Every structure is written in structure tokens, then in C-alpha cells.
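Example 3.2
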Amino acid sequence: ELKAFAAGLDLVMVVEEKRSLIEVQLREELYGSAHQPMVIGKKDEKGDWLFPVHGALDPNDVAIALGARLLQYRDDPALRARLEVIATAQGRLAEAIELAKRTPYFCSGCPHNTSTVVPEGARASAGIGCHFMALWMDRDTAGFTQMGGEGASWVGEAPFSKRGHIFQNLGDGTYTHSGSLAIRWAVASGVNITYKLLYNDAVAMTGGQQAEGHLSPDQMARQVAAEGVARIAVVSDEPTKYPPGTLWPPGTTLHHREDLDAVQRELAATSGVTLLLYDQTCATEKRRRRKRGAYPDPDKRVIVNELVCEGCGDCGVQSNCVSVQPLETEFGRKRQIDQSNCNKDFSCVKGFCPSFVTVHGAQPKKAEPMRLDADALGAGEIPEPALPALDRSFAVIVTGVGGTGVVTIGAILGMAAHLEGKGCGMIDMAGLAQKGGAVFSHVKLAPKPDDIHAIRVAAGQADLVLGCDLTVTGSKKVLGAIRPEGGTVIVNTAESLPGDFTRNADFSLPTERLKRAILAAAGRDRTRFLDATAAAVAFLGNAIAANMLMLGHAWQLGAVPLSRE
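Structure, written as C-alpha cells:
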């Protein structure tokens, strides 16, 4: 069938992501055939690159490569004009300047905020999992390996190093996968290393499910003890939660997380392989379980008295928590706790700051329900917007911060189109961005499914950008994606500082420059700025509703080609 497909062809161009697997096999299969066509893919017949071997393929790059090749065989003015439009869009994308970047970070109240800290002068190696992000924080952490290879670099380095010991981070999911083997051969090698087994009861990077087998902390401890680990210490935010009769290996000690530094120093001074099992539930999973009533929800909250706060930022340093946000006042920058984002870890109070107040039995205030005066509206109801015609593929990009429901908005748009009998396609770009980084949801809407080809929205193709975060919306790839002749951009102006603020008390976003960049890309007439977060908190008591409010605002403006029903 393959040779029949290629019969009579002079050229076969293979378009595939990553490495050239199909291209190589196709070339080998067709070699020596009666009329062997030329096969190109990652490189052309001259050896020049056509498509990258890493990352995702850009639909515009594919179109340019295919279009240029077609024009070699037959001139087509319409095709040539379209390629010029695409090339111009790609040029604008290349020239765009990145004003700010939202780097993934630990969630609010994440156990890794505490567990990845090492004593002064010590060194740690990263592992696979959310705790990998310790590499770009002030955690004296460097280097990483594949799953199951944790500690391998130290086994090779130790005989030649003046350093006598390191810490190695190891997630509970990785331990179940293959990390137990790493501990086994570390024991066999005889090196001095402390494995920090980070037990958070969830594989947070891939959906929050429990690791296969769901081993309990004491089961893991007994396993590593059987492998020959010299010393085991268990550290937790709730060391008293283990029921009487829990079968810990002989010599195992239990400690509160406040004693983490002392425990680490003791283990570092112990010869051989030691284990620090840090047991604290994933903050994101806590939030989910609390919503279902399946996890205790402390009836208290921490607030900051702005009149007492001196804005030193020590609370952010102590907790490394992204819920500690700035509050600009007439007396300068203070601190406040983002109650919508707080997961009640309470590590921010470790700074013993007099401005911190713990309130018991209180909930954030909500405004009274809105009451609309129908007579005041004139028509007796809110007017229906004039919706754009859906006579072609309509491209939407939803941008925002991971963990705030960006992907949910994309899914709602897709389901709405499906229920209307329209075509829809969605692709989400999240990765580590679930942890406070940049998230993008690309949505294509069309009269019927066959009208949708590439789902990824390329440069110059976005009809609507729903910017749920100013920083992400002002990024290079989003600005370059706006359709120059008619794209609508709606932006939430609320400032949500990235994790950099935990380490730099004076960090600020280039808000006005970001706004100017968005206006320059989309035009003043097609851009709308609103503080959706403030509105959501005022009317619903929680910022989580901000993205849905943004979608409603876009629809009311007539920027979404779907009916209200």
C-alpha cells in the first residue's frame, strides 16, 4: 500500500513532530523502487532545516514550507498572497518582546515549600515531580536524573568530591515507579546520602491521583529498612496523626516539620544511606478534598493587619507561599493574604510578625446579591448581543494562571459548541504551569467538525483572546497570535505576582507596559480591560469565579459565536 501511494510521485514531504521516525522508515521502504520519489522531512534535499526536532510544530511554519514547495511547481497568486500574510504574522511574532514571564512555582501551601529546604552549606539534587521546581528557587538544589536514577550522579561523584554528603529529593510516585531501586543500589555503593522521600499522597503533576499500590508511609519505611537504610526519620506537619500500633521500623523517629533543620543535620552526619520521609498532603489535593467534604478544613484564617505590617517580606521568605501578595497603600507596600488562593498551610506565621492575625470562625465577606431594575434598563431586560457569524473556523485562546480554571473555560466553550451541533477542537498547554505558571487553552469553533484542521492557534489567527491574566496575555506568543484585522482581546487587569515575589520583596510587574503592548497588538477599539478578580471577590466572595465572569463579559460584547442557551 505504501509503494502504491508513492507510485508516480516525485516528492514526498513528511511532517511529524519530534524526531524523524516516519521519514526514515519511509525512505528505507521506498529505496530501490522503480520510480523512487525524493523523501524530505526534517531537512530538505539541500540539507537545510524545514521542521524542528524538538517542541511542537507551528501550523504557520508547516504552511510556509508546504506553500513554498507548491509554488515551485505552479504559480498561484492566491497562495502567494496568503503565504505573505502568514510570513508577516510570523515576523511580528519573532519581533515581539517578552516583557514579563510567569514561571511555574509551588502552589499556595505546597508541602515542597518546606520539605525542599536544606541546611546552610548543604546540597541537594532534584528529582522528577513538582519538587523539580526547586531547581530555580533559592534551595541549593542542582542537577536531576530520570525516574529511578535519583542519586546516580552522586554515586559517581562521591569518590572524587571533598563534600561528604548530599540530599536527594524523591517523590512518593517516583518511589513506587522505580525510585526504590535507586535507594537499593545507593546502599550497595556505600555512599553517604540522605533520600528525602516526599510523601504528599498524590501524583500532582498528572491529575492528583494516588500512586499505584498506594503504599502508606510506614510501608515505605519498612521497605527501605529491609534494603539496608541506616537511619529513618519521619517529618510531618501532623506527627501525631499516625494511629497507635503503626508499624514503623526499629529506630524510626517522628518529628514535627518545625524540627526539619535539626533532623536533616543529624541525618547528614550519619554514615551510609539515610531516609527522611516528609509526610504532608498535597495542597491542591487538600483543596479538592475539602470541597467534597473529604478532608478536615480548619475553621480559621490568617490575615495581615496592614497598619502594623512594615512590608519587610519576611513572611514570603519564611513560607515561600504565593498567597502572600502585595498591598499598595498610601504608606507604601504592605502584605495581604489572598484568601481565595490560600490552602491554610499557615507557614507564613513562622516569621512571628505582629501584623499577622489568626481569625477563628470567620469567612470572607460576600456582597449582597445584585438586583437589576428592569424598568431602568429600558427594554425590560439586558439586550442580546449581536454574535459573530460562525461561517469559518473561529480561533479562541484562553490564557491565565495554572490552577485558576483556564482549562475549564476552554472545556466549557467546547462543550457549548458540541451541544449546539457545531464543530469544536481543543488543545491545552499546561505542563508544570498548573503550579502557578502560564496556561493556554486553544479552542477552534466551526460550523461542522470537518471545518477544523490544525487546532493550535498560530500567529495572526486568534479571533478572540480571553486574557484571564495580564502577564500571560502580554507574552510574546499571545500578542503574536492576535488576528491583526479583527481579533478581540479581553484582559483581566488584576495583578497576580508570580513566585519571584516570595524572594524579592520589591518585585513588581510592568503593568502599564504590558497594557501598551496589548493595545499595540490588538488596537484600542478591539481591547477591553476589566478587573474581573475584584468583581468576582466582591459579588461571589472568591476569585475563582473571575475567569467565568470574563467569559460572560466576552459573550455580552458579542465576541463569542455561540448562543446563550
